[in-house]
Amino acid sequence: MSLNQYFLVTISVFLFLYGFFPVSEVPLNPDNEPPIQINNISLNKEKMYTSAYRRTAIIVIDALRLDFVNTNDMPLTSKLVQQNGCFCKVKVEAPTVTLPRIKSLTAGNVPQFIDLVLNLASTEILKDSIIHSAQQSGKKVVFYGDDTWLKLFPDKFYRYEGTTSFFVKDFTEVDDNVTRNVEMELENSDWDIMILHYLGLDHIGHVYGPFSSLVPNKLNEMDEIVHKIHDNMKTKNDNTLLIVTGDHGMRDSGGHGGSTYSETHVPFLIIGHQCDSSSFPQTDIPVNLAVLLGLRIPASTIGRLQRNLLPFNLEKYLYMLHYNTLLLGRKSSLGREYFERASAYHEHYLKTSDEVSAQTAIELYEYCSEVISQSLIKMSTEQKSSCIIFALMIMLSILPLLILQITGASRVPQRINCIGNIFMSLFISSYFLTSHYALVFVFIILSIMLVLNWQSLNIKVTGLLCPGIQAQIVSRNSIPRSFSTGVQDNIDASITEQLGQAHLRYFNSTTTKNTTIFLVLFSVIQPLTFISSSFIEEEHQYWYFFYNLMISFSIINIMKQRCLQDSLQDICLLLFLLIAFRFLRNMNSTGDMWGNQPDISDWLLKEENIHFHQLFFILELILVFLAQIILMRDAIMYTHVANFVILSLIFLYKNSDDNVVLGRIIWLSILCHFVLLHTSRTITWILISCLMLKPYNVILVPYCIFSSLIVSKHLKQIENVFFHSLLGNLLFFAQGHSNSLASVDVSIGYIGLEKYNAIFVIAQVLCHTYVFPVLCHVLIFRKKRINKNIVWKTLFTYRLYTHIVVCIVTLIFRHHLFIWSVFAPKLFIESIHTVFLFIEIFYINTSAMLSSFSKKYF
Question: For the GPI ethanolamine phosphate transferase 2 C-terminal domain, which residue ranges apply (predicted)?
Answer without folding.
Answer: 506-654, 705-827
